[in-house]
Each structure stands twice: as C-alpha cells, then as structure tokens.
Write a structure and sequence with these properties.
The protein is an alpha+beta fold. The chain is 30% helix and 17% strand. Strands 6, 8, 9, 10, 12, 14 and 15 form a seven-stranded antiparallel β-sheet that branches. It has a four-stranded antiparallel β-sheet with strand order 4-16-7-11, with no helix packed on it. Helix 9 crosses helix 10 and helix 18 crosses helix 19.
C-alpha cells in the first residue's frame, strides 16, 4: 500500500514539474522561452529500484533559471549606452531591464513571490517549492558548488529564517559550515545576465573609499541620474550618482536636494563638452585630474559652472605650466573670460618678455577688441612701436573679415580699431619709421599725419592726440656683463670709434655701456654711442651723452635713449666715440662670457674683432669693457 501511494504521489508531482514553472517565469514581455524538458525525478522510480544509468549529478536534477546566473564583471562606463539598463534611485533595476525575479528583495527583506530558480528532488524529503533561503537550503542536504548562495544572502531573504532548525527546514550551523553550495554558472546562465550589473561582492576587493568610488565611476552600478551632455548629434548619455555629485558640488546639491530640486531623470547640458563633463565626474569621484591641452579650457569652464574650485585651480596650474609666447594671447582671452586674474597677469608678463613672438602667433589675430586694448595700454611691451603698429594692422584685417567688412580697406580697419588706434604711440617712432609705414597706411587721417610730422620736426613739440610716453620694455633686474680681466693705463683718442662685435644666445635689451675714464683725475667726456646691425649696417640705437669720471679705474655709465632690442644669434657692433684725455683700458679680454642670474637665467655673449677703424679695440684689449642690459 505504501509503495502504491508513493508512486501515485510521484506521478502527481511530475504533472506539474517545478522546472516548467521556472522556465515559465523566464518569459519576458510575452515572448516565448524555449522549454527545457523536465528530467526524470528520483521519486518516479519504483521503491527499491535503481536507475539503469549511473546516478545523475546535481546538474541533471537542477535547471536554474537563466536570470539567476552570477553577475559578470563590471563594464566600463559607456557614455552612449541606452537608457533601458540604468538603475533607479533605490538601487533596484528599472522595469525595462532584465532583473532577477527571485533574488530581487523587497524593502522588508523577503523574497519575491516569483517561482524559485531551481528545484531539487530528494527521496527523503517532500517535494515543495522553497519560499525562503532556509527552505531552499533545507531542500539541499547534499553538496554542490557555485556562488548563488551568496545571492540569496545578498537579497536579505535569510534574515527572518536564520534561526530555523533542521526540523523547521533550515539548519543555521549547516549553512554556516560551508557545506552548502549552489550550482556553477553555465552558458545558459551567462547568456541572460545584464551587462551593466556589477559583480557580486565587488566591495570586498576594494580596500579604500577611493577604490570603491573609482569602481562606481567606471561602472553603472547603483546610478540614479543621467545627463545628456553636449549638442546633438555629438551628445552623450552619462550616468552618475546624485549623492556623490551633491557632496562634491554645491550646484549639484541645489539641483538634487534644494527647494527647487529637479525631478527629471535625464538632465540636458548642451553647453558642456562630454570630455569635460567626464573629467569633472572623475575628479568628484576619485580626486584624479585628467586634463590635456585640448580639454583644459572646456574643463575649466565646467569646473566654474558647477563650483568645483579645486578642479579650477588644477586647470589654471596646468595652463601656467604650459604657458608660452605661442599661446599667450589665446590664454589671455580665456583668462579674462573666466575671470582668472592671476592667469591673465602671467599671460601679460609673457607677452611683455616675448612681445615679437607673441604678436606673430596665430592666436593674436583672434583676440577681441577689449583684450587688444589691454595689451596696447601697457608700458612694458618689448617691441618697437612701428612693429607693434604692423601687428595691429594684421589684427584689424582679421577683424574686418569676422565682421564681414569686405574688402578690409583702410577705412574699415580704422572703423574696427576704434579706441585701440589712440593707444598706438606714434611719437615713439623715428621720423623714417613713421614716414615709411604709418603715414602711408591710410588708417590715419591727413590731419593726424601732419600733426605727427610737425611733432617729429619742430621744437618746441606741439601737443598731439597720441601718447608719447616711452614703453619701458624692461623687466627684472639690470644686469652687466664684463669682458676684461685686467685694467691697464693710457688709451688715447683721436676721433676714431672704439668698436667690438658681439652676439648673444637669447634676446636681451641693451640700455647702455660701461666705459673707462681719465687717468688724469676728474674729467668730463663727450661721447657718441651706437649699436649697429652687422648685416644691414642699420643703426639700432644711438645717443650723444656726456659723463663725469673721478680719475679711478671704475667704469662709468653711458645710456641710450631707449632700450635696444638684441635678437639671438645675430651679430651687432657696439661703438663708442670719445672726446677727452687718455683713459684706462682693459686687457686679457674674454671671447665668451656667460652671465647668470637667479631671476633671468643665463645669457651667453660672444665677442669678436670688428673689422675697419676701431681705434685699436679688440677682443684682447681696448675700450667698452661693459654692456648693460635687461632680459
């Protein structure tokens, strides 16, 4: 009787096999799922009979649901992913994403009412579907391997049943002993696992808060907000975590938690580049600064927009390290736009020291009128006014094209220059420079040309509408290079110039010479000093001063009216024509002298013999012992 009853029970249970329930639970959106035939239950064997084949292993008795597969490793954040797989605010997956219908826990810590992902038959236990972790474990008194028991612990389902005894269907000691395992994953399991889910227990491999936040940045784990960044069609969808953004930015805090907090799940940011927004998120999550020449300005804009001053400072420091004459004008415009006075000051200082190179760079013609005026107002530009005027004309031509004033005639150029034209210091030019350049440009009116010619030719000077304040293009500390090692007496003068040829390895500004004085006591000398360009024989600077000497072996300063720009690797001749009694002179001269200072670095002078009438001055001995200069 008992045997017949057992056989009837087994047949009744085989009519509704739990595998069929499990497979039915895998059907999503009314799409049919391939049904797996139920294997023969051990209880369907006749009592005392043995199966004809070797006893099947656990995998033959259990068919787990595909969505119970172990979750794969984290996927890198893809800013272009679709919206269907993004997590909700409470950490659960959205309704459109494939979720585990069994392991997903409710807020009370109980399991879903959906069918379990597996069922095992045991000849010594009643076949029933487990509803808790304890019931599941009590139905498996044999060993198998796999990580799925961890998923049940993760769901919180076992908390209410952890105290169950074996009589109640669950033995806590057995569960804790490590003898209970669940099936290994299979291709069927992996095939249906969502790709944006994190690996279970990833927290155990992250030993610091930074590592854990970096993991969250690199995956979509627990994200609860999305941003559509950039302008179409190049915009990207970027996911993030409200909490992390809120503790790093007051702007995000107000956006998510303020009185007017947004309820949108997708926030559009069309004015920010995706790369810059990613750099902002990386910094908020990990404190890492990832910027480059192509993204630093957009990242600086983004950091300012979302009030992240630490990232702002990092961007400014990057710009300072990479500031050069080639990009000084471009960065100056941006620094003024972003209200970065320290960066703007550094840009202006670079322009002062390297004015010719900065004006020749492509970025100069792209600046706005206000920035141009800021530069022209400076008294420290290291360039001749005629060259500055030529550069301003190039800017005016480019501005005409930007304003569609075509062709860029002189009238149109004067129109776009407007107030900047009055900042050109035409009186600082020589009459030759003005006559050959500015007077013929057509930008100046006839009245202005006549006014300036009168200024150049008559005394006293008439009042004019242009500034005549010299530009002090000298920065740093005055420096002096000496070329002699010893001083001798009696060097005579007969109206012939003392001349020495020299060359430097970097640009400098010569402001004067140091000359020896009389051997006969205090005396006054009249002197003409010049610097001549060797190849063109052009006089770069000259003056006719006088100087008083005291009869000692000291040198005495004679200065040019304006600093003379000396270009690197170019030969010049220093000339001095003295009228007065015999003087001291130098001997044991040096052909190569390297002058070094803390503030300006090294400047190397090379002295060579100047052919022609030189009053006997050479590399070895003679006059002009010192050159006074600035860098």
């Amino acid at each position: 009787m008992d045997g017949d009853k057992n056989r009837k029970d087994g047949q009744a249970k085989n009519k509704q096999c739990p595998y069929q329930k499990c497979n039915a639970s895998q059907t999503t959106n009314n799409q049919p799922t391939n049904q797996t035939p139920s294997p023969q239950s051990p209880e369907s064997y006749a009592e005392g009979s043995q199966p004809s084949s070797p006893s099947p292993d656990f995998g033959q008795h259990v068919l787990p649901c595909s969505d119970m597969s172990p979750q794969p490793g984290p996927t890198l954040r893809d800013h272009r992913h679709s919206l269907s797989g993004i997590g909700t605010a409470n950490g659960a997956m959205s309704a459109t994403s494939p979720v585990n219908a069994v392991v997903k826990a409710s807020s009370t810590g109980t399991l879903s009412s959906a069918p379990p992902p597996f069922h095992a038959h045991n000849s010594k236990r009643e076949n029933k579907l487990p509803t808790t972790v304890g019931d599941c474990v009590s139905n498996f008194p044999f060993s198998c391997s796999g990580p799925l028991v961890s998923n049940f612990v993760r769901s919180g389902s076992c908390s209410a049943n952890a105290g169950k005894t074996a009589n109640g269907g669950f033995d806590a000691d057995l569960f804790a002993s490590g003898h209970i395992f669940f099936p290994q994953s299979s291709p069927l399991l992996a095939a249906s696992t969502p790709q944006n889910q994190a690996v279970y227990n990833w927290q155990a491999t992250k030993t610091s808060v930074k590592e854990r936040l970096t993991y969250l940045y690199n995956t979509d784990t627990m994200t609860d907000i999305q941003f559509k960044v950039g302008k179409p069609p190049a915009h990207q969808i970027i996911s993030a975590h409200k909490f992390i953004l809120s503790i790093g930015s007051a702007v995000f805090d107000a956006l998510f938690n303020g009185r007017l907090a947004t309820s949108d799940s997708i926030i559009e940011i069309p004015d920010v580049e995706p790369a810059a927004f990613s750099a902002l998120l990386r910094f908020l999550y990990t404190d890492d600064v990832q910027i480059g020449p192509e993204t630093v300005m957009t990242t600086l804009y983004t950091a300012k927009k979302y009030a992240v001053p630490a990232l702002e400072r990092a961007c400014v420091e990057f710009l300072k390290r990479n500031l050069s004459s080639d990009n000084a004008f471009m960065l100056l415009t941006q620094a003024r736009l972003f209200d970065e006075p320290q960066l703007a000051a550094l840009c202006l200082e670079t322009i002062d020291k390297n004015t010719s190179e900065a004006l020749a760079a492509d970025g100069f013609t792209d600046i706005d009128l206000d920035t141009l005026c800021v530069v022209l107002e400076r008294d420290t530009l290291g360039i001749r006014e005629c060259k500055l005027f030529s550069a301003v004309c190039r800017w005016a031509e480019a501005e005409c094209l930007r304003q569609n004033l075509i062709p860029p005639t002189s009238e149109n150029q004067r129109r776009v220059l407007s107030k900047a034209l009055r900042l050109i210091r035409f009186p600082l030019m020589t009459i030759e420079e003005f006559a050959m350049g500015s007077a013929q440009s057509g930008i100046l009116e006839d009245r202005e040309v006549v006014e300036l010619f009168l200024y150049f030719t008559v005394n006293p000077k008439p009042s004019i509408s242009f500034l005549d304040v010299p530009r002090c293009c000298l920065t740093g500390k005055e420096q002096v290079v000496s070329r002699f090692c010893q001083i001798e007496s009696r060097w005579g003068y007969s109206g012939t110039s003392d001349r020495i040829r020299f060359m430097v390895n970097r640009r400098i500004y010569v402001v004067g010479f140091g000359l020896y004085g009389s051997i006969h006591g205090p005396t006054e000398y009249s002197v003409n000093i010049q610097i001549i360009h060797m190849d063109s024989t052009k006089v770069m600077g000259s003056n006719d001063p006088t100087f008083q000497c005291d009869g000692t072996t000291s040198t005495f300063r004679v200065m040019f009216k304006e600093p003379v720009e000396i270009l690197p690797n170019t030969s010049y001749i220093a000339c001095a024509t003295l009228k007065g009694p015999d003087s001291y002179y130098g001997s044991k001269g040096l052909r190569k002298v390297t002058h070094e200072s803390v503030s300006s670095g090294k400047v190397t002078f090379q002295f060579t013999y100047a052919a022609g009438n030189n009053n006997g001055t050479s590399v070895e001995d003679g006059q002009i012992p010192e050159i006074i200069f600035y860098t």
